[in-house]
Amino acid sequence: MRDAEGRAPNTYDLSIHHGLPKVGEANQELQKIALSCGLRTLRTSWKDFSAQDADGRRISFGLSFSEASSPVSGVITGNKQLTRRFLQAAGAAVPEGRLFQPEELEDAVQFAEDLGYPVVVKPVAGKSGQGVVAGILSRTGVEWAAAQISHLDPADSRFIVEDHVPGADYRIYVAYGAVLSVVLRRPANVTGDGVRSVAELVVAKNHQRRHNPHTRTRLIRCDSSSTYQLERQQASWDYVPAPDETVWLASAANISQGGDSTEVLPETHPSILDSAVRAVDAIPGLNQAGVDFLVPDHRRPLESQSGGICEINTTPALMANQAPVYGEPQPVAETVVRRAAESAGIQLPPREGTLQIAVRAQASPIHPAWLDG
């Protein structure tokens, strides 16, 4: 299925990703880059490896982050309300919002009405877009979103109600003071052909997503949340959309929830790139992050339009930017490895086109309990 501008989806070599858990994809990609730059690597788990040059200088990666990343930054950005305060102190554009306890639902509804609909409701400590509901237009929507957050994490059901910033959703990947990629994200959706039902279109699109290293494990879901979105459009799973009619299956533009991604870095205005870098600089110890930016048009200067940062993610899915569904992919993983190496005093040569790899594996003793059942 092509995107709204008629672009065909990208194709990728999935050979190194077979059998990997979805959170291990980026780490494997980084190791491949390190090897192709002539470094020796030692893998210590499915999510960790270290690499060293001929002089013994070393860099290590956990998931997609080098050892230079500070745990302090993760504590700050793990709390969306705390992140808001740091960004506001730095003068960053953030939507007006407020934190609520689950028992403060009536206060939350009143706050939403004072702000004026539409609003966004999201968990204070959520990740991967889970629990985020955008474009809420009524009391019922606020109550429904708060209930979903309560089911998501009964131990911490606090939630934020904030102003809905109009515009498209972008994930801007910042590392070591530079923007490496800008991905335009669209909520999970299907485009009608006048023949197939919504359910059949979802099956077809999920088949396409399985051929991308990032979306292969992040399929469009047929659940209560997507059913709710269909009902908001007076549609159902049996509904047959007209040709070129878009049917939305989520409100939040999150790739992990079945959303689309298009790389747009070459055409993004420098003022937006600069704003993203400054936002990351506002968080102590943060050298690599995904900035979630809402703005109507990435091609125009930020000062000429409304826009704002809705979140900073210290553990962004590197593969979401490394392997966009549409648009020209950027060398995100290679740049991350090279900048991490530079910070350790390692000068990397150009990458080799082919590799010869010697692999040594050490088996762990089998514990009798592992054989039970």
Describe this structure in words.
With 373 residues, the protein is of the alpha+beta class. Among the domains are: 96-164, Dna Ligase, domain 1 (2-Layer Sandwich); 190-251, no CATH class. The chain is 28% helix and 21% strand. The protein is built from 10 helices and 15 strands. The protein has helices at residues 25-36, 71-77, 80-89, 105-115, 139-152, 198-209, 224-232, 270-281, 318-322, 332-343; strands at residues 40-45, 48-52, 58-62, 65-66, 97-100, 119-123, 133-136, 159-163, 168-175, 178-186, 189-191, 246-248, 260-263, 288-295, 308-313. The strands form 4 sheets. Strands 13-10-9-14-15 form a 5-stranded antiparallel beta sheet. It has a 4-stranded antiparallel beta sheet with strand order 1-2-3-4, covered by helices on one side. Strand 2 and strand 3 form a beta hairpin. Helix 1 packs across helix 10 and helix 4 (105-115) crosses helix 5 (139-152). The radius of gyration is 22 Å and the shape is globular.
Key features of this structure:
alpha+beta, 10 helices, disordered C terminus, 28% helix, 373 residues, five-stranded antiparallel beta sheet, globular, Dna Ligase, domain 1, four-stranded antiparallel beta sheet
Explain briefly what this protein structure is.
The protein has 373 residues and is of the alpha+beta class. It contains 10 helices and 15 strands. 28% of the residues lie in helices and 21% in strands.
Write the layout of secondary structure elements.
Blueprint: H1 25-36, E1 40-45, E2 48-52, E3 58-62, E4 65-66, H2 71-77, H3 80-89, E5 97-100, H4 105-115, E6 119-123, E7 133-136, H5 139-152, E8 159-163, E9 168-175, E10 178-186, E11 189-191, H6 198-209, H7 224-232, E12 246-248, E13 260-263, H8 270-281, E14 288-295, E15 308-313, H9 318-322, H10 332-343
Antiparallel strand pairs: 1-2, 2-3, 3-4, 5-8, 6-7, 6-8, 9-10, 9-14, 10-13, 11-12, 14-15
